[in-house]
Write a structure and sequence with these properties.
Chain lengths: 224, 86
């Protein structure tokens, strides 16, 4: 039973960690090599890894997806260790109003910015591409680029301020909920349980007394 | 349409948060008042009356109204994200 509970807890934690890794913004230092638009039919398998059509348009089964092809600096261990270059393809979609809450409506503008940032001859113009999501080849899913801004240089290492703020807020939220739960238990649940216990005690005492009376009556009847 | 959905569900979620936070805040205040009475033992004031008086004060306080910020901060946050991202 304890092992089952532990496995359940670990599964939940892993899912939460994966979800956060998918949804939170990451920054890549990259150079844009080209941009393109590809008509795509999404399947049930990879549909959840894509957003919807541009905000304000009608939803349809197949649509054009904007892509940004790039060469980025490979990173390991959440960006702590830098590697060589790696090709990376970003999609560029509106996230709209709902999920994930980036409220991005300017994918067309971003595509224009990416086009303006194309750099194929040395010295390269490096840019910081903020994105969320994963590149998984066998599912044909791509990270969604959220913004592009010029990088000071090839070796620039962006500090993930937004993630730090989000994690701190989440921690504060968890602590607050815990405090609320403790207060609720101490002030509401425990007194309730106590009064219920009290009542059970009363009932039991009552029952014992009645049984005693019955016993006495029975004893008297038998002439003891 | 999605915007309407966001507003409606956001409002529902924030209402749940608001109710929870205000219940919590009230409970903490009541506990503090009880502790204060235990400590000072004011002459001639019953414990329940003391707590009741204190809670009446709390109901009118600015601190209680500040919980309404639960409804104010998230829309500001959303606005800020929209400004930064787009």
């Amino acid at each position: 039973m304890r092992n089952i509970r532990r496995a359940f807890r670990i599964t939940i934690l892993v899912i939460l960690a994966l979800w956060l890794h998918y949804v939170l913004p990451h920054r890549d230092v990259a150079r844009v090599t080209s941009t393109e638009v590809v008509r795509t039919d999404l399947s049930g398998l990879n549909r959840i890894f894509f957003a919807q059509t541009d905000t304000g348009n009608a939803e349809s089964l197949s649509r054009d997806l904007r892509f940004i092809n790039s060469q980025r600096k490979r990173t390991y261990l959440f960006g702590l260790i830098r590697g060589g270059n790696q090709t990376m393809v970003y999609r560029n979609e509106d996230t709209g109003w709902i999920y994930p809450p980036y409220f991005k409506f300017d994918s067309a503008d971003l595509q224009a910015e990416a086009g303006a940032a194309i750099s194929t001859e040395a010295p390269y113009d490096w840019v910081v591409i903020t994105h969320y999501g994963w590149r998984i080849n066998w599912l044909s899913i791509y990270p969604n680029a959220v913004s592009i801004r010029p990088a000071p240089g090839e070796d620039f290492r962006p500090v993930p301020w937004s993630n730090i703020v989000i994690y701190v807020l989440m921690l504060a939220g968890v602590l607050f909920v815990r405090a609320m739960w403790r207060q609720f238990r101490e002030r509401t649940l425990d007194p309730l349980a106590e009064s219920a216990e009290d009542r059970i005690d009363h009932v039991q005492a009552d029952f014992a007394e009645r049984r005693g009376r019955l016993r006495r009556w029975w004893d008297r009847l038998r002439g003891k | 349409m999605n915007f309407v959905r966001l507003v409606i569900f956001g409002f529902l979620v924030l209402t749940v948060v608001y109710v929870c936070v205000s219940l919590y805040s009230r409970s903490v205040r009541r506990e503090k008042l009880e502790a204060e009475w235990e400590e000072t033992r004011p002459e001639g004031i019953h414990r329940d009356a003391f707590v009741k008086e204190g809670m009446k004060e709390y109901e009118a306080s600015l601190r209680r109204r500040l919980i309404l910020l639960v409804y104010v901060i998230p829309p500001i946050l959303v606005g800020a994200i929209i400004l930064v991202v787009n």
